[in-house]
Design a protein that fits this description.
By secondary structure, this protein is an alpha/beta fold. The protein has 19 helices and 24 strands. Strand 12, helix 12 and strand 13 form a beta-alpha-beta unit. It is globular, with a radius of gyration of 25 Å. The protein binds glutamine. Glutamine binds next to strand 20. The site of glutamine has 10 residues, from strand 20.
């Protein structure tokens, strides 16, 4: 039986230093050394999970196969490690307190006073040690927030205790701090790092490795200074430099020897990391053979993090076609019949992403019509599929009152509706029940199978009939309208195995027009670009080349044909 080793990553000075990226990149290196690696995120906030948070505040909600609504850092972990994670990989203060309070109500602590130490900290340790179960060599645990935050204290106390419980050989502390470059002084500054480490040590955690987030490499001299002031080995101070592509970070860490130092300190088997696949990836990213402009027409455009996985999946689609993908985020509220030609001009492909609530939906429906009529490659995801169905019903079938029950409870034609009876029948479906779940407010979550129709765009992409994808939505295509939609020319190319749920739609008289009820972006990785994103980007490239032909009336035969 293997003994799992733990690496704890804390952050100091300020947030957004890239702890998630650092954890994922270190995990990548250790995996490339032949180790089995998992990563966990511990979030200090009180929400039980980010499922109820606004994406423009918190960023995307990442969904796992087992239906957990998790922090977007899990998306980074999955994309880098190439392995599916689960509910066990993300806990919050809220979820920890919830299980302690549930136990208290059940009488598990009868007679005792329930306290932060030991009850909350024990629950945190249980959550961390839960990673050790399945033959994992290394578990990387990222503590959200910044050292000094009130909320993160129980987590820091728990990992401090674990070092004592498990021993020095099985626990390693990495602290990520900021080393700013002061242009006026012409030098990097170490004081914030010194203060941050002091704060960490005041709660009993002595970092083994310090990772310095910096614009450019920190000099040896400065590393020595940090080592001296923070009491770590001289060769245990590393730079985490700004990179133009996040996929370069594992290679940067490797150049500095981070994985080597970690392996020595944790007594992991000595073996060199095989990074050839990552080197190839970075070389493709650095020398694209073509470029394409894709518009994402959504309503959470004020915070790019709200579409994190989508953004990455489109980059992956570009990698598969050796093309650079320029992404334009367009606020759907700005798209109207009067503005559409201007706002959507110059896009080679259009994507309407998922979303909740009515705001911006009119613009999304307008966008779908524009893409359909102008034969621009179109990809609709979740709400994007629902908008495409509404648009088709209104403008092709002539059902003026077509809408979704989400926005118009009394709509004449609820082509998208709450399928309460489906949830009643599938009692074991993975769902999150809302407070008004008796009214059918139930979210379909996690992986569900889907069967694809042969000869469709979907089949051409996946190359197989049976697939599984992740869901996060309440509403479905109304089966009452299926015959009419099909008779009008909409292809229902993906259905649930029992045939009850429409999972994919497409048009056959269009270069590439596809909608899916699930979120394929959650399963795309740079090493394995998702087939739908690959084909969408390919169609957009073809469209872009055609557009150039039209604009300049000159052949582009000299350009590499990436469509094959
Ligand atoms: N709001 C829609 C629903 O709940 C779509 C959700 C989504 O796009 N993820 O069904």
């Amino acid at each position: 039986m293997r003994e799992t080793k733990f690496i704890f990553i804390t952050g100091g000075v300020l947030s957004s230093l890239g702890k998630g990226m650092a954890a994922a990149s270190l995990g990548t290196l250790l995996k490339a050394r032949g180790l089995s690696v998992t990563i966990q995120k511990l979030d200090p906030y009180i929400n039980i999970d980010p499922g109820t948070m606004n994406p423009t505040q918190h960023g995307e909600v990442f969904v796992t196969d087992d239906g957990a609504e998790t922090d977007l850092d899990l998306g980074h972990y999955e994309r880098y490690l190439g392995t599916a994670l689960s509910q066990k990989n993300n806990y919050t203060s809220g979820s920890i307190y919830y299980s302690v309070i549930t136990k208290e109500r059940r009488g598990d602590y009868l007679g005792g006073t329930v306290q932060v130490i030991p009850h909350i900290t024990d629950e945190i340790k249980l959550a961390i040690c839960g990673l050790a179960e399945n033959k994992t060599d290394v578990a990387i645990v990222e503590i959200g927030g910044t050292v000094g935050d009130i909320e993160s204290q129980p987590f820091l106390e728990a990992i401090r205790q674990l070092r004592g419980d498990l021993g020095k050989d099985r626990c390693l502390f990495i602290h990520l701090t900021l080393v700013p470059y002061l242009a006026a002084a012409g030098e990097h500054k170490t004081k914030p790092t010194q203060h941050s480490v002091k704060e960490l040590r005041s709660i009993g955690i002595h970092p083994d490795i310090i990772l310095c987030r910096c614009e450019s490499q920190v000099s040896m001299e400065l590393k020595r200074k940090i080592a001296h002031f923070c009491d770590v080995d001289e060769d245990a101070v590393f730079s985490s430099v700004d990179v133009d592509s996040v996929y370069k970070l594992p290679l940067e860490f490797y150049k500095e020897g981070l994985d080597q130092k970690v392996a020595i300190m944790l007594r992991l088997p000595a073996r060199n990391a095989d990074l050839s696949a990552w080197e190839h990836l970075v070389s493709v990213l650095s020398k694209p053979r073509d470029s394409v402009t894709i518009g994402i027409v959504g309503k959470y455009v004020s915070l790019k993090e709200a579409y994190k996985s989508l953004h990455e999946a489109l980059v992956h689609g570009g990698i598969a076609n050796e093309a650079k993908v320029d992404l334009q985020y367009i606020n759907s509220e700005e798209v109207t019949p009067e503005t559409e030609a201007r706002v959507l001009a110059g896009l080679d492909g259009i994507l309407v992403p998922g979303g909740f609530g009515e705001r911006g939906v009119a613009g999304k429906i307008c966008t779908v019509r524009y893409a359909r009529e102008n034969k621009i490659p179109f990809f609709g995801i979740c709400l994007g599929l629902q908008c495409a169905v509404i648009e088709f019903a209104r403008n092709v079938l002539g059902l003026g009152g077509a809408d979704s029950e989400e926005f118009a409870v009394d709509a004449e034609h609820k082509v998208i509706y709450l399928m309460t009876e489906w949830f009643d029948y599938h009692k074991n479906a993975r769902v999150r029940r809302d407070k008004d779940s008796d009214k059918g407010g139930t979210m379909r979550l996690g992986a569900y199978p889907c069967l694809i129709r042969e000869g469709s765009l979907a089949f051409a992409a996946y190359g197989s009939k049976a697939i599984s994808e992740r869901h996060r939505h309440r509403y479905e295509v109304n089966n009452k309208y299926r015959d009419a939609l099909e008779a009008g020319g909409l292809v229902l190319s993906g259905l649930s195995p029992d045939g009850d749920l429409v999972e994919m739609i497409e048009l056959s008289d269009h270069p590439w027009f596809l909608g899916c009820q699930f979120h394929p972006e959650f399963k795309s990785t740079p090493m394995n670009p998702h087939p739908l994103f690959r084909d969408f980007v390919r169609a957009a490239l073809k469209n872009g080349r055609g557009r150039q032909d039209r604009d300049f009336a000159e052949p582009v035969s000299s350009k590499a044909d990436l469509s094959s």
